[in-house]
């Protein structure tokens, strides 16, 4: 019995030891798992903080870029406004200059027209009429003609047209009189058109004649210039007229040379004489008659 109890007691102690070992192993595993979870959570928290910081930095950069785009847009808008203002100012300046130039041209045309009217006006006499009144001479000058403005000329033109153009007064006319009036107006228009055609033909013919005469005048002037350039200088020579028995004058240099020869007559004469003395003598060679070759006796006898 004692052996059995000791064995059971030993077996029970081993079970307790094993249970304690298993409990310790389980606790170690739980502790390791808790430590791993804590490390994972710490790493996850650090990673999350890093991601949060990165996202915040990206948001800040995006906000900076947006603010930069807003600033650039404002700057470009200001530049566009300045460019538009400058362009408008240039356009206004161009229009003002163009208007000033147009006014200057109008003033110049008006001045030329006034001058032409003055030139085309009636000429004043180049003399002064003097009259004697009570023994004193009085000079009467022709009154100056008033120069009319453009508005006055336009009014005179309208008045003349109103005098020449008569109203038709068709209210009191019946159909027969209206037909007669239309026929008379048609005949008058036909006469005016025929007169206009005749005047146009006359103008064209006169213009052609003037052009032809001008061309003939140019041709005649051209031919006269050619004849004048081809004529020989036959001016009067006093020396030749005085010494009629002397030989004609010899020109020792060309009259077309740009630089006149400054040598005297004796120097030039001596130069030509020296050249004539030093000329080599020419020996004449007389031809020698050579006998003709005889090829055949019959030819020689013939």
Automatic annotation (TrEMBL):
<feature type="compositionally biased region" description="Basic and acidic residues">
    <location>
        <begin position="142"/>
        <end position="155"/>
    </location>
</feature>
<dbReference type="InterPro" id="IPR038077">
    <property type="entry name" value="Troponin_sf"/>
</dbReference>
<protein>
    <recommendedName>
        <fullName>Troponin T</fullName>
    </recommendedName>
</protein>
<dbReference type="Pfam" id="PF00992">
    <property type="entry name" value="Troponin"/>
</dbReference>
<comment type="similarity">
    <text>Belongs to the troponin T family.</text>
</comment>
<feature type="region of interest" description="Disordered">
    <location>
        <begin position="1"/>
        <end position="155"/>
    </location>
</feature>
<feature type="compositionally biased region" description="Basic and acidic residues">
    <location>
        <begin position="41"/>
        <end position="118"/>
    </location>
</feature>
<feature type="compositionally biased region" description="Basic and acidic residues">
    <location>
        <begin position="1"/>
        <end position="32"/>
    </location>
</feature>
<dbReference type="InterPro" id="IPR027707">
    <property type="entry name" value="TNNT"/>
</dbReference>
<dbReference type="InterPro" id="IPR001978">
    <property type="entry name" value="Troponin"/>
</dbReference>
